[in-house]
TrEMBL record:
Example of a GO cellular component annotation carried by this entry: cytosol
Regions annotated as coiled coil: none
Keyword presence, Hydrolase: yes
A molecular function (GO) term: purine nucleosidase activity
Domain (Inosine/uridine-preferring nucleoside hydrolase): residue spans on this chain: 5-71
Superkingdom assignment: Eukaryota
GO process terms (BP): purine nucleoside catabolic process
Entry-linked PANTHER family: INOSINE-URIDINE PREFERRING NUCLEOSIDE HYDROLASE, URIDINE NUCLEOSIDASE 1
Record's protein name: Inosine-uridine preferring nucleoside hydrolase family protein
Tagged with keyword Hydrolase: yes
Source organism per UniProt: Genlisea aurea
SUPFAM superfamilies registered for this protein in UniProt: Nucleoside hydrolase
Stored InterPro entries: Inosine/uridine_hydrolase_dom, IUNH, Ribo_hydro-like
Keywords: Glycosidase, Hydrolase
Length: 72
């Protein structure tokens, strides 16, 4: 049985590699991605996530943009 995941990420270089590995894993079913600032801004994280989904063979994977600053 595949593990169902929603991945919260700030896809700079490190998370990008991890996402590619997850896209290819037969043990994981990714239900969607949420993005947050971190290594890059939230806007860049969302753009990166959408691009990674496209080139990683998951162009229809939902991507939700998160907060642009820490929650208070």
């Amino acid at each position: 049985k595949r593990e169902k995941l929603i991945i919260d990420t700030d896809p700079g270089i490190d998370d990008s590699l991890a996402l590619f590995m997850a896209f290819q894993s037969p043990d994981i079913e990714i239900l969607g991605l949420t993005t947050i600032f971190g290594n890059v801004s939230t806007v860049d994280a969302t753009r990166n996530a959408l691009f990674l989904c496209e080139i990683g063979g998951c162009p229809d994977l939902p991507v939700a943009e998160g907060s642009h600053e820490p929650l208070k």
